[in-house]
Amino acid sequence: MRKQQVAIIGGGNGALAFAAYFALRGQTARLWEFPEFRSSLTQVYEKKSIHVTGVFEGEAEVRCHEDLADALDGATTIMAVLPAFAHARLALEIAPFIRKDMILVLNPGRTGGALEVAAILRKQGIRIPVAETQSLLFACRRRGEREIHIGGIKSFLRVGVFPADRTEEVMSRIVNLIPPFRAVPDVLTTSFGNIGAMFHPASALLNVGLLESGRTYDYYGETMTPGVVAVIEKADGERMSLARAAGAEEFSAETWLHESYERTIESLYSMLQSNPAYRGIAGPSGIRIRYITEDVPTGLVPLEAFGRIYGIATPTISSLISLAQVLTDTDYRVSGRTLERLGIAGLGQDAIRLFLKRGFLS
Amino acid sequence: MKTVTVMGAGNGGFSAAADLSLRGFQVTLFEHPSFSGNIENIRRSGVIGLSTLPSTGLAGGFARPVCITTNMEEAVAGAEMIFVIVPAFAHIIFAQAMAPFLRNGQMVVLMPGGFGGSILFRKALRAAAGPAGVLVAETSTLPYACRKLDDISVWIRGRKESFDLAAYPAADTQQILALAQVLYPAVRAARNVLETGLNNLNPFIHPPIVLLNAGSTERGDRVLFYHEGITPAVQHLIEALDRERLALADLFSLSLDPAHRILLTHYGHQGAAGNTFREVAMGNPVYRWSEMPSRIDSRYLTEDIPMSLIPIRALARQAGVPCRTMDAVITMTEQVLKNDLGALARTLEDLDMEGRTVTEILQNL
Fold it and tell me: Which one from A73, A200, A258, A329 is the annotated catalytic residue?
């Protein structure tokens, strides 16, 4: 395989895991993180290597860049591994350095990530393909300043490409890099497959007392009680109805857990309680946490908006958004991924289908 | 010596019967035959044990109601004042059961009425061919914070220093108030039953605390309802709901106090203080013992939502007042309970408010 240059944008667990993964597979991994978040990467930047344990073991050589321009120079694939609320900013920052031969992959895109980023790039006359994965490839955790433990890697992961007409072109370049990636017909399948947005806000909101109690707790084990899971199931039903109405691939949270973690299909409650991958995840403290500040504006808000287009009622999703808005004093329906930001405001179902396929309407 | 009947032998009924008896009134305590177990033991001894916190100013002791019965005719006959202290969803059932025995001039006070309780009560009375000259009113709240200790005694830890009463129609309020104040000097007149209904804080306080602690409840954590359950975000939700309550009240020309002020009027004399609901509730000595219900499907959701918050939201919606927070709380409750509470809820149609303007509604009240 020809040695490829991959630029990884981000500096969290996922970004380090990707950098290590590419380096150990013989690619050149270039890493760039927004300067204000770079402090946790001091040692990585200094030593230019990451120590990997878990499903891969070894010392991975990483090129660390101060300048975004340098990081992107010569790279053909850009892997964005960032909270979804940073995708818009990412698009603005990389725009000046984009070349026609580049592809951008959002890991993951949450709901509407590729559409939002493509809309921003389009305004600057840039039309590279933007892909989004349904979730993060790795189960990974930081174990030290430059130590990453990769506990698991998904055996298959859905990838949607915008515009869908360029799916083959993107996949032919990317599957060599990441064999588990599987193309889906378009980004509606990945965007409507946002399972995190089902699990996180409901469990956080119905456990606000616990989140603010200041005590340490096991996130999934303690927050996923029967009443909470009942709400998740309702929200998931709305999400699936939406996928069905839009002609996207429809799968339940249970199916997704089965696929992603090789768990036997049981009740959602049992699956959430018994999944070893969910054990020992220390719960966050407070309510300004990504389970709300990321999953609501880049998950529930666009899902609710798509519901209007496809005529699907989303009372559970809507009430989760409203509660989150009140609790955090944030109008996510304005600041989040609106249809305008996704570049599809005013489009009907047929126009959207055409737009997703070609990337333009006329 | 006034003769009073207390309908219902739950926490509130026990407290009222014991407190009023010890204060020298002749009290009859009635319980519905389906719940006769509630009065079985006190009927045998004729005594209700009353414990009180000294700060309530109420004396405890052995209270001897003159009559403890499951016979409605006996309970209603001769009572000058009848306090109905039952869950709001039983108001209509009690109206139907009382109708044959009520006489013109008798007074019925729902304590409290939920939202629109006395409107429904009066309509049910009429439908059951009860006498038209019965006076019907409701209070904004139960006069006590109390819990039964067992099946023969009750503990009153809070006595509300001021609460509202309004009759339906409001023209009857002064007449009922005159007698009610003899029994409860703290009661004051509200303008109409919208004021009592909107000054009932339960639906604006209980659901936020229960919902945002649903996980804890289901895990079986022991959480103190007010002292631990109102974290900053819970307080935030209570405030947002309270703003919607006040906005609706404004539209009906009622200038109501915010929730924390109401709490201060209730419990300031027992040591409550503070500037926000969270501060007042967490610092309220009366609330020191209040625990989170052991199940999420407690009356804090199953009564407060359908009997109050759903009809209040309907009124807000009809009047064009913001109600997004109420929406979120109601929908979330329905999802958590896997229950369509709307089917059981009081409706604007039930309350003769459907399709009416603010002026028409006020006129009718």
Answer: A200
Mutation target for B interface from A233, A289, A327: give the one with most B CBs within 10 A: A327
- Which one-letter DSSP state was computed for residue A67? S
**Domain containing residue A295:** 196-358
Number of Cβ atoms within 10 Å of the Cβ of B340: 10
ipTM of the complex: 0.85
Check which CATH number belongs to the domain holding A161 and give it: 3.40.50.720
Which CATH number is B3-191 given?
Answer: 3.40.50.720
- Are A221 and A294 members of one domain? yes
Cβ of residue B73 closer than 8 Å to a chain A Cβ: no
A230: nearest CA in chain B?
Answer: B336
Known catalytic residue: B221? no
Q: Select from A151, A172, A191 the last residue of a domain.
A: A191
Instruction: State the smallest CA–CA distance between residue A231 and chain B in angstroms.
Output: 5
B206 catalytic per annotation? yes
Put simply, the answer to whether B236 touches A319 (Cβ < 8 Å) is no
If one counts the domains in chain A, the total is: 2
Q: Can you give the pLDDT of all 362 residues of chain A as single tens digits?
A: 467 789 999 999 999 999 999 999 989 999 999 999 999 999 999 999 999 999 889 999 999 999 999 999 989 999 999 999 999 999 999 999 999 999 999 999 999 999 999 999 999 999 999 999 999 999 888 889 899 999 888 888 999 999 999 999 999 999 888 989 999 999 999 999 999 999 999 999 999 999 999 899 999 999 999 999 999 999 999 999 999 999 999 999 999 999 888 888 899 999 999 988 888 888 999 999 999 999 999 999 999 999 999 999 999 999 999 999 999 999 999 999 999 999 999 999 999 999 999 998 87
* Superfamily of chain region B202-364: N-(1-d-carboxylethyl)-l-norvaline Dehydrogenase; domain 2 (1.10.1040.10)
